[in-house]
């Protein structure tokens, strides 16, 4: 399970945890997120901007 | 006076003293200014003095801006984590929320229990709305934060004016699409505030509901599920305003309808002035560039920023929406309004004056320099505006008249 970082605000998408509040269950891999996924904290950065920080 | 300090490996000891620390208490107390008209009425028995809090907001704050001047002071980045963690700053906007509820209840009680003329009723209702609209600003500060307490307090503050969809619509709609023609909450050059409001208010309701519906559906829930945050805030409106009707009678119905609308108008005014005419450029892949500092209008006046939780440092807010008010920074050479937000709200209601103040200032911005391709223009107005402002560029002073 990998982790991806929002370079704008520091939010991390951890595949193991998902983002249940946004409706992404634990275990949802980053590439399976919709293309219009935006940072749930800042909404400034989109899926393309996220950086892989941990494999 | 409280000092923040840290040891930096290269820079040595860094210290910062927030000179505005205790002045932020003004934000907590400002909603009570709404009651000044009622207080003066008790002292003088003159119903025309109900106009005082309206004048205080639209004109008085601008006079204070002029008297107290600007504040360009920024905290050092190294100390921002300490500022953000300081509970004092955290609790001020949270404690401001009950003030907004209190002010609404006092106005409801006063209107229902006194023999008032029609002008007095209008002034009191608009005052209640204006300060409920200030509650939307408090909700804005709280709604961008991650802790559940802040987000709940935001929903309560929005319930005072029945605008419960705002935080969802603002965070997931406006912030994402800001300064593009697709954002109904970013105003276009050549569009007056009345035309803007007719689109922005209904579109805000629709987009907020739609964003929340999509989130609920991703969770596998119905849009009517109790965890719908828009519905939660609307339910609070029903409880608060329903109780006011039950206790104070049917006079509450017109009072609440108008006060709610005038509260929304305050938020519409803010949206109208914050990004007027500013436009993000398309990238090669067809998407928009990220929101840049020059895509927001700023003001850096001490007085109005203290009353708006530093909303006027708007460029930094859009770059870092989760940053708390006490850490927002001022930057040189950004699009800057000639006076604070409160004064601009008043000017916006007079479209001819607004265009006179803003259009050349917009075209003279360094990144636009008279290029209409870089302006967010109202549909169908481009040729006319180009003809009117032919030759305006960065070389010409912004204040020069047509």
TrEMBL record, chain A:
Arranged from A to Z, the UniProt key words for this protein are: Electron transport, Iron, Metal-binding, Transport
**Is Secreted there in the keyword field?**
no
Q: Which Pfam families match?
A: Rubredoxin
GO biological process, alphabetically ordered = alkane catabolic process
For this protein, the record's SUPFAM superfamilies field holds:
Rubredoxin-like (SSF57802)
| Cofactor(s) the protein requires to work | Fe(3+)
Taxonomically, which superkingdom?
Answer: Bacteria
Q: Which GO terms describe its molecular function?
A: electron transfer activity; iron ion binding
Q: Which residues form the Rubredoxin-like domain?
A: 1-53
Its family? Answer: Belongs to the rubredoxin family.
Q: Write down what this protein is called.
A: Rubredoxin
From TrEMBL, chain B:
Signal peptide limits = none
One Gene Ontology term of the molecular function aspect: metal ion binding
Q: Please, one GO biological process term? A: lipid metabolic process
- Key words of the record: Cell inner membrane, Cell membrane, Iron, Membrane, Metal-binding, Monooxygenase, Oxidoreductase, Transmembrane, Transmembrane helix
Which parts of the sequence belong to the Fatty acid desaturase domain? Answer: 122-332
The record's comment on protein family reads:
Belongs to the fatty acid desaturase type 1 family. AlkB subfamily.
Q: Which protein, by its recorded name, is this? A: Alkane 1-monooxygenase
The organism named in the record is Pseudomonas xionganensis
Lineage at the top is:
Bacteria, Pseudomonadati, Pseudomonadota, Gammaproteobacteria, Pseudomonadales
């Amino acid at each position: 399970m990998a982790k991806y970082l929002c370079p704008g605000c520091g939010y991390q998408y951890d595949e193991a945890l998902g983002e249940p509040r946004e409706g992404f269950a634990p275990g949802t891999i980053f590439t399976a997120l919709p293309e219009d996924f935006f940072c749930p904290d800042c909404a400034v950065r989109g899926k393309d901007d996220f950086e892989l920080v941990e494999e | 006076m409280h000092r923040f300090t840290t040891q930096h490996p290269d820079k040595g000891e860094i210290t910062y003293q927030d000179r505005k620390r205790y002045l932020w208490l003004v934000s907590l107390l400002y909603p009570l200014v709404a009651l000044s008209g009622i207080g003066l009425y008790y002292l003088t028995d003159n119903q025309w003095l109900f106009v005082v809090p309206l004048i205080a907001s639209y004109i008085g704050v601008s006079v204070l801006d002029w008297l107290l001047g600007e504040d360009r002071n920024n905290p050092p980045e190294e100390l921002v984590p300490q500022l953000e963690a300081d509970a004092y700053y955290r609790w001020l906007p949270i404690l401001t929320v009950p003030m907004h509820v209190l002010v609404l209840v006092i106005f409801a009680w006063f209107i229902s229990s006194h023999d008032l003329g029609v002008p007095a009723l209008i002034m009191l209702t608009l005052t209640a709305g204006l300060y409920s609209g200030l509650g939307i600003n408090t909700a804005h500060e709280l709604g961008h934060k991650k802790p559940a307490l802040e987000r709940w307090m935001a929903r309560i503050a929005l319930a005072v004016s029945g605008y419960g969809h705002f935080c969802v619509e603002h965070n997931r709609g406006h912030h994402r699409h800001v300064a593009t023609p697709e954002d109904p909450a970013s105003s276009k050059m050549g569009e007056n505030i009345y035309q803007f409001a007719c689109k922005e208010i209904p579109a805000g309701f629709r987009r907020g509901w739609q964003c929340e519906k999509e989130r609920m559906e991703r969770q596998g829930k119905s849009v009517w599920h109790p965890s719908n945050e828009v519905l939660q805030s609307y339910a609070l409106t029903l409880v608060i305003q329903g109780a006011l009707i039950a206790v104070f009678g049917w006079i509450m119905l017109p009072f609440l309808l108008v006060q709610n609308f005038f509260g929304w108008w305050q938020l519409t005014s803010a949206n109208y002035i914050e990004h007027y005419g500013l436009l993000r450029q398309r990238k090669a892949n067809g998407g928009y560039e990220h929101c840049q500092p020059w895509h927001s209008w700023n003001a850096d006046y001490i007085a109005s920023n203290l009353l708006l939780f530093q909303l006027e440092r708007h460029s930094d807010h859009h770059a870092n929406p989760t940053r708390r008010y006490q850490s927002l920074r001022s930057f040189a050479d950004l699009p800057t309004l000639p006076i604070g937000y409160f004064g601009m709200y008043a000017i916006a209601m007079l479209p001819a004056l607004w265009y006179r103040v803003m259009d050349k200032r917009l075209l003279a911005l360094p990144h636009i320099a008279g290029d209409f391709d870089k302006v967010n223009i109202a549909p169908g107005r481009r040729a006319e505006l180009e003809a009117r402002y032919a030759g305006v560029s960065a070389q010409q002073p912004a204040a020069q008249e047509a």
